[in-house]
Specification:
Blueprint: E1 14-18, E2 32-39, E3 47-54, E4 59-67, E5 71-80, E6 83-84, E7 88-93, E8 105-108, E9 114-121, E10 129-136, E11 158-165, E12 169-176, H1 178-185, E13 193-201, E14 210-216, E15 223-227, E16 230-236, E17 246-252, E18 255-256, E19 260-261, E20 278-282, E21 285-292, E22 299-305, E23 316-317, E24 323-331, E25 337-346, E26 349-357, E27 367-373, E28 382-385, E29 391-398, E30 403-413
Antiparallel strand pairs: 1-2, 2-30, 3-4, 4-5, 5-6, 5-7, 8-9, 9-10, 11-12, 12-13, 13-14, 15-16, 16-17, 17-18, 17-19, 20-21, 21-22, 22-23, 24-25, 25-26, 26-27, 28-29, 29-30
Length: about 425
């Protein structure tokens, strides 16, 4: 069995080679050969919380950057032929809610629009914060007035947003803590985090707010993807027995289905692990990746579905034995997927690693994309595929003096 090199040399390409570790139903290796080259980051020092997205034709990145003593700016940049464009400001303020795990985003929407969100602190402090959404019809030169998708106005948590373009509207999914406020007024109401959905047109007309799940994990990221059968959303559920496994819901004939478990890990945990799932479509195959600590054994797993999320095959373990999670999944045009995660390497050390996987559960050797740390400030490394089929990876590099968003291009040798 071939062993992957773990060297990283910035400023020029460095190649990693891998072959199959083990297989599911299919025999034969999956090769993964990549070259990693760091690019000049558009983010300045004292930046963090990067988010990458792609429309297939264009890659976008948003991030937060300190501005003055107590203020932050939400900025974005576009990947161009010669590197990242100069960062542009989407919004700024002294009341941003800044959190390593609950970060802003930017995405392409209907009719060439761009959509961004950030989190704004409420007057009560702590976890009183809400979602603010803006759109731009001129490529980010000008942005609309902020819109808040939740109407409850309670001083509770609203965040962990994912979004999906629905053709003529933009759909937003978020975790909503309004029942915590209701429970203070009515003892019969359970203190539960809920999952909610709302869409809005490019003309600013919102649709009704929908309750997707009445009891979910308190602070794990959500994720969404568009399939040929419609959008799907993945999230970490929470049963009355404190089982917190990954669930999926699908929009079918205008209604969200009841959440169904992707795989029964049976992870019993009394608090939120702050480690949400990732989902991506690859040709006609849907892939979901996630972290679990079931049976006191941390694992990163991937499962695939050939029926747009109605059912899933048995998952494949892809980590190298000591994962911190923070999973990202990218679908490829040949029906395979690339999955990245954070692997602990001792003390606070960690690496962003990646494997290739097919629908039969066959995986490549893991490769290292970058060396980092496992601390919270590192955040959630981002991974997307650009129009030239190369990948972009973004992460927060943390030192004793400062932190800064860094980016690299990952070339895949077919």
């Amino acid at each position: 069995m071939l062993r992957s090199s773990s060297k990283v040399r910035w400023g020029s390409s460095v190649v990693f080679v891998g072959s199959v570790l083990f297989s599911g139903c299919q025999e034969g290796p999956i090769q993964l050969t990549v070259g990693v080259q760091e690019l000049v980051s558009p983010a300045s020092e004292n930046s963090g919380e990067p988010f990458l997205s792609t429309s297939g034709d264009q890659v976008l990145m948003s991030w937060l950057e300190a501005h003055g003593e107590n203020s932050h700016q939400l900025k974005f940049s576009t990947l161009e032929a010669d590197g990242w464009s100069q960062g542009k400001v989407i919004a700024e303020g002294a009341d941003f809610f800044v959190n390593w795990a609950d970060f802003p985003s930017i995405r392409h929407g209907p009719n060439g629009t761009l959509w961004a969100h950030w989190l704004q602190s409420g007057t009560q402090g702590g976890y009183d914060y809400g979602v603010r959404i803006v759109q731009s019809s001129d490529g980010g030169g000008n942005w609309s007035k902020p819109w808040t998708p939740h109407d409850d106005q309670t001083p509770t948590e609203h965040g962990f947003v994912s979004s999906v373009s629905l053709g003529k509207t933009m759909g937003f999914i978020w975790l909503d803590g309004r029942q915590f406020a209701a429970a203070e007024q009515d003892e019969s109401v359970e203190r539960e985090m809920t999952l909610r959905f709302r869409e809005i047109g490019v003309d600013g007309t919102p649709g009704p707010e929908t309750l997707m799940d009445g009891r979910v994990c308190d602070c794990c990221q959500t994720d969404a993807a568009m399939t040929p059968a419609g959008p799907v959303v993945v999230y970490r559920d929470r049963t009355e027995a404190e089982i917190r496994d990954i669930y999926i819901t699908r929009l079918v004939e205008g209604n969200w289905t009841d959440g169904e478990v992707v795989y029964e890990d049976g992870w019993n945990i009394g608090g939120c692990p702050v480690n949400g799932p990732s989902v991506a479509m690859a040709e006609n195959e849907l892939y979901v990746g996630w972290f679990t600590g079931a049976e006191e054994q941390p694992r990163v797993k991937v499962a695939s579905s050939s029926d747009m999320g109605e059912s899933f095959g048995a998952p494949t373990v892809i980590d190298d034995g000591n994962p911190a999670g923070r999973v990202a999944v990218v679908g490829l045009s040949n029906g395979e997927a690339l999955v990245s995660w954070l692997e602990r390497t001792g003390a606070e050390g960690a690496e962003v690693r990646m494997r290739r996987i097919n629908s039969e559960g066959v995986i490549s050797e893991s490769v290292t994309l970058t060396v980092t740390t496992s601390g919270r400030a590192t955040g959630f490394p981002q991974l997307v595929q650009g129009p030239d089929e190369s990948l972009m990876v973004a992460w927060t590099d943390v030192t004793e003096e400062t932190q800064q968003v860094r980016v690299a291009r990952v070339e895949i040798d077919e």
